[in-house]
Amino acid sequence: MPTGQEKMETPGFAFEVLHRHGNARVGRLQTPHGEVETPAFVAVGTQASVKSLAPDDLEQVGTQIIFANTYHLYLRPGPEVVAELGGLHAFMQWHHPIMTDSGGFQVFSLGASIEQGVGKIASIFPDESPPSVPPRRKPTQGRSLVQVTDEGVWFRSHLDGSRHWFTPEIAVQVQRQLGADILLAFDECTSPLHDYEYTRQAMERTHRWALRSLEAFHASEPLHGFPQALYGIVQGGAYEELRRQSTRFIAQLPFDGFAIGGSLGRTKADMWHVLEWTVPHLPDHKPRHLLGIGEVADIFAAVARGVDTFDCVAPTRMARNAGLLARTLDGKPLPRFRINMRNARFRRDPRAPVEGCDCPTCRTYSRAYLHHLFRANELLAYRLATVHNLFFMNRLMAEIRAALQEGTFDVLKTHWLGS
Amino acid sequence: MPTGQEKMETPGFAFEVLHRHGNARVGRLQTPHGEVETPAFVAVGTQASVKSLAPDDLEQVGTQIIFANTYHLYLRPGPEVVAELGGLHAFMQWHHPIMTDSGGFQVFSLGASIEQGVGKIASIFPDESPPSVPPRRKPTQGRSLVQVTDEGVWFRSHLDGSRHWFTPEIAVQVQRQLGADILLAFDECTSPLHDYEYTRQAMERTHRWALRSLEAFHASEPLHGFPQALYGIVQGGAYEELRRQSTRFIAQLPFDGFAIGGSLGRTKADMWHVLEWTVPHLPDHKPRHLLGIGEVADIFAAVARGVDTFDCVAPTRMARNAGLLARTLDGKPLPRFRINMRNARFRRDPRAPVEGCDCPTCRTYSRAYLHHLFRANELLAYRLATVHNLFFMNRLMAEIRAALQEGTFDVLKTHWLGS
Predict the structure, then answer these.
(1) Which of A109, B26, B324, B333 could form a disulfide with B339 if both were Cys (CB 3.0 to 4.6 A apart)?
(2) What is the pLDDT of residues A15-58, one digit of tens each?
(3) Which domains are delineated in chain A?
(4) Which residues in chain A touch residue B49, judged by CB atoms under 8 angstroms apart?
């Protein structure tokens, strides 16, 4: 039963649930840069470019909304540059909705992957104003240079090793400068390697940061002439007690929407559980985003549990590795939904890369040509494959929306995943 | 004074000189895949792809005709694959004119760059049917594995070192399979390192190969349902006597058009002389192509001397190295017609990459965004810069055609090159 259109917290945004099917819903998210029909896939444009595509390609494949990474853009070209150029929409000439993450995920994943000697750190410290609380290592982070305090995080650039200081307030400020429609609150992102105790501490810190993010958000103004919304992030790893606790805490805060972040466990079943402990307990009338998930089976599972939007690098990254997304190849199911265009069997194959696909690539080129372009390392290969994979994701989401409206979601799920 | 439309040797092709200005001319080349207004720049798509662009990009920037490389396509994906897929036009979905070279240039340049031990050569010989004349080294070729005989050439693949045998007959056959509109006769391409005597021998071999190319061309049929034309190639290095001799010999053969190949000397003046010894002595009513030339000053010099078409990798290669072609930057002349978009001065520059340029890139994006894309190694950078540079070349050629028609060629030349 539709709930009717609901204003989100921030004027200029609204979310309407149009249809329901169990916990799943079809919705419409209004933003200052247009509407997003949900469930929707959010294409990732890490460095203010969806790799190999121009904005008109994205429009052509039906992309409604893209995701850019605060960590990367903070380091290069720098938020002040993007702000001077009029924000991300003007900078990259994408005039539809944009989300930015808070930088948390990359700070903890990329920052943690840089290993250097301690002496070298010490030599850089003196020039910078230290945080109010002495930095300490995350216990499970090994030689990581990420140093978390309640105040914020020291991390190193993966580009040049330079040290940087991030806080919830800085993350809001940087995202104000970048100028996306939807911002995320700064969180501490934990991995399956973190134990219960550390995950609990990180979650509690994320909760304190959520309050500070909201405060910084309300104390600041958009810089680019349109309102911005702020989503909160639920953490707690794959621990039921923590996820339930985090959901209770984050859900009652006046965020415009909610994201599920951090570790979703090690198995599909772990992920389903995390979604069950979290999503149904978030406010029904606000949008829910699942961070970093984009496999076909995971999307069906998450939609069924009430998720509205997804971002994931997999479809675009796979494309650059010659992987085309498809349900079947020549009548045979593809369990991993992937065709490797470098495979020698395609060398002389005149057929469309994915027969029956209406994407600009499959309507125009043969398997033999795509195979040749990948073998010859031609730049056009990456674009043609990315066009196909994003078209595939957007088409899948459209099929899911239609099936939810027609009450045939389970039939569609069986069609894709088997019974 | 126009000469009126002239049929070329092959039905389906015609060349009409519309206007003259000294030795320069404005023309219209008719091919089975449409017309080419000359003087024209031929974009290079070595491996059946103009690097980073799709055919619709090429149309958008005004590209009339493209050039593909027989050597590369022979090695990968193989001419039989391109033939099975319906020829280059169908393979790469470019429905406008295409030229292919004969493979000669790459055989002698890429083939010569692979150096291996002599023992290793000997061990490979026995398995293959040797040419009728024993192979001998080109005297100035050093340790090259290119082995030229009057019969043909042994060369090695730059991809895997495998040995291959090319003759004028094979070059025609391969180009029949590739299915371009315009083919080139197989030639021995000499460099400025070759002395007079070797250049003379190579030229004479090229002349014998020209006769064999014509014979093979007439003894074979097009494979893809439309006629193909064959151009002859004038050789002779930078030696006046040889160039004049080669022009006399090649010009009297029933080729559809003529290309100037081989060494054009070491200086601009050398090139002007070679053009003066050759171009005006070619049949007036047939098209003339200058191989591998594409710098602005060279194009003005060659057009003035009667050249109709040019191919060159420079504009597209430069684009991939962040170089945008322009006459001026912010009012200041650019002597090398090049802007380096990686330059730090563009980091915050909101202006169009080349102000006043009507190309899709300059109409849409800022210098700051292009600078960011190049610094971040984003794939989109290569495409946006290539779009600009090919638009620039096509626009330059259009300005040259208009100036020739209006009698203002010298004014235009001064505008571009100074007095």
Answers:
(1) B324
(2) 999 999 999 999 999 999 999 999 999 999 999 999 999 999 99
(3) 4-107+167-317 (3.20.20.105)
(4) 373, 376, 378-380
